[in-house]
Design goal:
- The complex is a heterodimer of chains A (162) and B (555).
- Chain A is of the alpha/beta class and 162 residues long.
- Helix content of chain A is 18%, strand content 20%.
- Chain A is globular.
- Chain B has 555 residues and is of the alpha+beta class.
- Chain B has four domains: 6-110, Sulfite Reductase Hemoprotein, domain 2, CATH 3.90.480; 127-292, Sulfite Reductase Hemoprotein, domain 1 (2-Layer Sandwich), CATH 3.30.413; 303-401, Sulfite Reductase Hemoprotein, domain 2; 415-550, Sulfite Reductase Hemoprotein, domain 1 (2-Layer Sandwich), CATH 3.30.413.10.
- A five-stranded antiparallel sheet of chain B has the order 1-2-5-4-13.
- Classes of the chains: A alpha/beta (162), B alpha+beta (555).
């Protein structure tokens, strides 16, 4: 089973990402991350128990908005690690829509982005293949001080107790 | 000047450690080229034509003698003994070794310097007016606001992977010396009717391939909301800027596509969610930062006496009087003057300065200007607080060290990007063109007769040399592998910034001094009274210049 970082632990990744285009019905006995669009179009008729969704970088988190908390897991796709839209998506889900399930970064995500991702509300990180996950954990703590408010603490440095 | 707190220092040191790790992972093959690229860029490191290039941040252009001495040390140890002042007030090293860059950064951190976000698709170094705090027409000192923005934009978690680079400039005077009209965000400090400080916010200006003058999207933003409003702008850009085509990725393209009105609406809508969030600035924080930018210990001096002896010295020494006229500016405190050290002597790449010059300038700053130095976007250095009674002594020393060329604001004080000699993006060399022009027009009386005139050279359409806003702009172009130069006329920077217009077909390098001379002759023949080049140019249009320059080519 592939591995994923959740919080600060390396664990088995039990969730499967269903591609945007797939044939037939989604399989029932799996932990699935459905494409957001598919879920939006089929939510009435879907007969899956717990499921998660994934949102692509060119999609709007507003489309799921308040409904976010229906999902135990939401993944944000980074088609390329230089596509920074996912950082905003993460913050909006956490800060605007109060999402409190698991927020995972999938796609092309590199270790050097962990600290930023964490600050944007992500708590699960599927790093690109070939990453030494043990080593990568260190990058969650690249910095011990930050200037801005973020998904963890809305207070910027100048409002925090120092 | 701002001094790091423990927190600021920790952030910079942790950055050094992070980059040290990234570099060794790259060298060990664990990070791909593609992945290392944006990481090193966000630390100012390019891989250039001949060697890596390291761009060191000089936040809003402010330096002191300690930093200058450290830089001197670094360029001596790790480079070839010189560095380059860029058009965004930063400093570039042209020959560092990749393996040594972490060490250079560690040394910079010792003097509260870094290379954070001097490149890459992130919020870049905040730039401002080189005369901040000393200019006579200042509404409010922009530097504390720049520092607040520096901290906000440093490692902003959401904005490290924007569609494209993002540049912010702040001006605190009515006459704009920070080029806010050609930045992604331009901030003009203003006062409202009640006397409160706020910002006029412009977006979508920029040079490069598609030059655009920025549009005002908010006339008055109360200072408390500076960070949340900027966060809204950058967030909208991060979400909707074009990521498919790098040539269409700057915010100016989005603003143009949506129109400034629609863009403003989107920003306001986003801002409505985050306005009054904890990121809202507090009186206390602004006060804390402002406390670092208080006045130095000015003496109370008698201006009339100082002026009288200056004019005596000027009468006796023609060279001094020239320097006084061109290279110094009025200061708001009686008895003081602002001095610009020219980094544009003929034969030296514009903006280049050697290790021993850096040390000499540090000494001058210690002796004459409260140890502070500013870098300008015209690629010169400024001593901002010199007593008029010290000017003569300062001039003599500056002359010996080689930066008293009395050409500030004249044709030979040209802005020039590193071009094809260093830059791998270049279409053509720019330094040899600069030098040829400086050699041709080295007669000071002629230069002074021409008066204020800006000539800006870029080696390619990325426009680091700001050629679109030069009175005369020169752009390097590539025609079937050969280097040519296109000329543009009538641009200007500042409050009434305008973009230059292309004159016509481009020229070979050897032709350039002649072509420039023809252009200058058209001006001299047509000017009315003491009309400036730019005004004549705007009045008579391009045609007379075209006729003169292309006359021979057409029969
Ligand atoms: S304008 Fe072009 S050639 Fe000149 S420094 Fe910029 S990218 Fe390089």
């Amino acid at each position: 089973m592939p591995k994923i970082i959740i919080k600060d632990k390396i664990v088995d990744d039990k969730w499967e990402v269903l591609p945007k285009v797939f044939l037939g019905e989604p399989p029932v006995n799996k932990l699935l991350l459905l494409p957001m669009k598919y879920w939006l179009e089929h939510s009435e008729t879907l007969r899956l128990p717990v499921l998660g969704i994934w949102i692509d970088s060119d999609e709007e988190v507003e489309d799921i908005g308040e409904k976010a908390n229906m999902f135990p897991v939401i993944a944000i796709n980074f088609p390329s690690f230089t596509d920074g839209r996912g950082f905003t998506a993460g913050r909006l889900l956490r800060e605007r829509y109060g999402y409190n399930g698991q927020l995972r970064a999938i796609g092309h995500v590199i270790r050097d982005q962990l600290f930023y991702l964490k600050r944007c509300g992500f708590d699960a990180f599927q790093l690109r293949e070939g990453t030494d996950l043990e080593e990568a954990l260190k990058s969650l703590n690249d910095f011990s001080v930050t200037y801005q408010g973020d998904a963890d603490d809305p207070n910027p440095l100048f409002r925090r107790d120092q | 000047m701002y001094q790091y707190t423990e927190n600021d220092q920790k952030i910079i040191e942790e950055r050094v450690a992070q980059f040290r790790g990234q570099t060794s992972r790259y060298l060990a093959g664990e990070l791909t080229d593609e992945e290392f690229l944006p990481l090193r860029l966000q630390n100012g490191l390019y891989i250039q034509r001949l060697a890596p290039m390291l761009r060191i941040a000089v936040p809003y252009g402010l330096l002191n003698s300690t930093r200058l001495r450290k830089l001197a040390d670094i360029v001596r140890t790790y480079d070839k003994g010189y560095c380059h002042i860029t058009t965004r007030q930063n400093i570039q090293l042209n020959w560092p070794q990749l393996e040594e860059v972490p060490e250079i950064l560690a040394q910079l951190a010792e003097v509260q310097m870094h290379a954070v976000q001097t490149s890459g698709n992130c919020i870049r170094n905040i730039t401002s007016d080189q005369f901040a705090g000393v200019a006579a027409d200042e509404i409010e000192d922009p530097r504390p606001w720049c520092e607040i923005l520096r901290q906000w934009s440093t490692f902003h978690p959401e904005f490290a992977f924007l569609p494209r680079k993002f540049k912010i400039a702040v001006s605190g005077t009515e006459g704009d010396r920070a080029a806010i009209l050609v930045h992604d965000i331009g901030l003009q400090i203003v006062r409202n009717a009640a006397g409160e400080i706020g910002f006029q916010v412009l977006v979508g200006g920029g040079l490069g391939r598609t030059p655009v003058i920025g549009s005002v999207i908010r006339e008055f933003l109360p200072w408390q909301h500076l960070l949340t409003y900027l966060e809204a702008i950058v967030r909208v850009y991060n979400r909707y800027g074009n990521r498919a085509n790098k040539y269409k990725a700057r915010i100016k393209i989005l603003v143009r596509a949506w129109t400034p009105e629609v863009f403003a609406e989107k920003v306001e809508a986003e801002w409505a969610h985050i306005k009054d969030s904890p990121e809202t600035l507090t009186e206390e924080e602004v006060k804390r930062v402002k406390a670092y930018f208080t006045e130095p210990a000015y003496e109370s001096l008698d201006d009339a006496t100082a002026e009288a002896s200056l004019s005596n010295q000027a009468q006796e020494h023609k060279a001094f009087s020239r320097w006084l006229e061109r290279n110094t500016h009025p200061h708001r405190i009686p008895g003081y003057q602002i001095v610009t050290l020219s980094l544009k002597p003929t034969g030296v790449a514009p903006g280049d300065v050697t290790d021993s010059q850096l040390e000499a300038i540090a000494d001058l700053a210690d002796q004459y200007s409260f140890s502070e130095i500013r870098a300008t976007h015209n690629q010169n250095l400024v001593l901002a607080d010199v007593k008029k009674s010290d000017l003569f002594a300062l001039w003599q020393k500056a002359k010996v060290a080689g930066f008293a060329t009395p050409n500030i604001g004249t044709l030979t004080d040209l802005i020039c990007c590193p071009g094809g000699d260093f830059c791998s993006l270049a279409n053509a060399k720019s330094i040899p063109v600069a030098e040829a022009i400086q050699r041709r027009f080295d007669d000071l009386d002629y230069l002074y007769d021409l008066g204020d005139l800006t000539l800006n050279i870029s080696g390619c359409m990325n426009a680091c040399g700001h050629h679109h806003v030069g009175n005369i702009g020169v752009l390097g172009v590539d025609k079937k592998g050969e280097e040519f130069y296109q000329i543009q006329l009538g641009g200007r920077a500042g409050t009434d910034a305008e973009l230059a217009n292309v004159l016509g077909p481009s020229f070979g390098r050897e032709e350039m001094p002649d072509v420039i001379e023809k252009i200058l002759n058209v001006y001299l023949q047509n000017r009315r009274g003491d009309e400036l080049f730019i005004d004549t140019c705007r009045r008579i249009g391009l045609d007379p210049f075209k006729e003169s320059v292309y006359a021979k080519n057409h029969h």
